[in-house]
Fold these 3 entries.
Entry 1:
Amino acid sequence: FIDYEYATPCPAAFDIANHFAEWGGYDCDYNMLPTKSMRRRFLQHYLESYKAHCEAPTPHRILEALFEEVDRYRGLPGLYGGLWALVQAAVSQIDFDYTALAEARLGEYFAWRAEEDGSRAREGKDMPLCEQR
C-alpha cells in the first residue's frame, strides 16, 4: 500500500481541514493558508458539486454546519502531520529536514489548542499567523 494511513475512513471535515492545512506546503508558509472567507467559498462549491451529483438540497444551514465542523478539526492536521514528520525524521532516507517540519506542524496544533482553550489570550500572547488565517 502507498500511504496506508489514508486507507481508513475519516470524517469528511477532517479531510477538508487537512486539505486547507496543506496549502502552506512543506515550508509551512502560513500566508498561503486560506482565510475564513476562502474556506467558506470552497465549502460552498463543494456542496454545490455534491448537490449536482446527488440531487441533495444544500441550504445555507448545511454550509454553516459543515464550515463549523471543518473548523473544529483545523488543528488536528498539525498534530497528524507533526507526528508523521517525527517518524520520518527517524526512519526516512530522504534528505529533508523532517524535524523542522515536525516542529512547525506541531506548532500549528498547539496554536490551535491555545485558541480553543483560551490560554493564548489569557497569557496575553499574539495570535500566530496560522490561527489568524
Note: Residues 98-117 form the longest helix (20 residues).
Entry 2:
Amino acid sequence: VFLQPPSRHSFKLELYSGTRLPERCSNIRVMLECTCLRKVGDIPCFVHPSKNNETAQHSPLLKTLCIGSYLDVEEIACWVQSLVQTAWEHLPQWQHWQLTVLPSSRSCRVLLTGPSDRQLCAELVFAVEQGSP
C-alpha cells in the first residue's frame, strides 16, 4: 500500500549511512510545503504563518502517525489495523467470514476465516514512492 502525504506535505526518504540495507534503515521525513506562491484560496500557508495565523500548523493525522518530523511505521501499522477492523464491521457481504487482525508492528496482517473453516491470510505492507508530491 503506497502512502500518500496529506495535502501541502511531501515525503522525503532519508537513508542511513552504514552497512545495513537502505530500505530497512530509512527514515521518511514529512515536509511541509510552502503554498505562499500558489493560489489556494483562504487556506493559510503551513510553513510561513500570516499575521492572522501566528503559528505554523500541523495535520492532526501527522501528530498521530509521526515522531517529530518522521513517519512512525509502528503507529501507521496500529492505525491501519484499527481502520481495517472498523471497516470490516461495515461490510455485510462478508458476514459469513471472520476477520482476525494478526500482531505486527510493521504491517497490517489479517486472517479471514470463512465457511467450512476456509482461511485466507493477507498482509498490507506500507511504502512511499521516492519523489512523492
Note: The helical segments are 60-65, 73-88.
Entry 3:
Amino acid sequence: LLDNPEIQEEIYRKDDRLLTLLKDVYVASTDPPARVKDGGDEHLPCKQEEKRLTKLGHLGDLDVNKVPKGKISLVEALTLLNNHKLHPQIWTAEKIAAEYSLELKEVNSLLEFFIPFTVQEFPKETRKAI
C-alpha cells in the first residue's frame, strides 16, 4: 500500500475545498460557572430536624436535654435497657419504641445486642475464697 506512489501522493495532497470548509467551522466551549458551596442555596428553606425533650429523670444533669427524633441519649439508652431488664413484661420493645420515638426494629436490635452490666458485691465471708 505504501509502495504505491499514487496513494502516497493522494495522502499528502492538499484539498483546498476541504480546507475552506474547515476554516468555516468554529467551536466555542466554555466551562460552567464555578459555584461556591457555602451550605446550599439561600433561597431554599433549611430542613429543620425535629427534636424531642429527653426523659432523663434524676440524671438530667449528666446528659443532653434534646435529641433528634429517632435517636436517644446515652442516659436514656442505659435507663431503657435497665427498665427492660428489670420489668420486661412492662417495658416491651413496642412500649420503648413509642415512649422514645424509635423504630421498632432498632429497639429490638438494641434489646438483643446491648445488655447493661450488673454490679454484684460479694459478702465479706466469700471475698477470701475468691
Note: DSSP finds six helices and two strands in the chain.
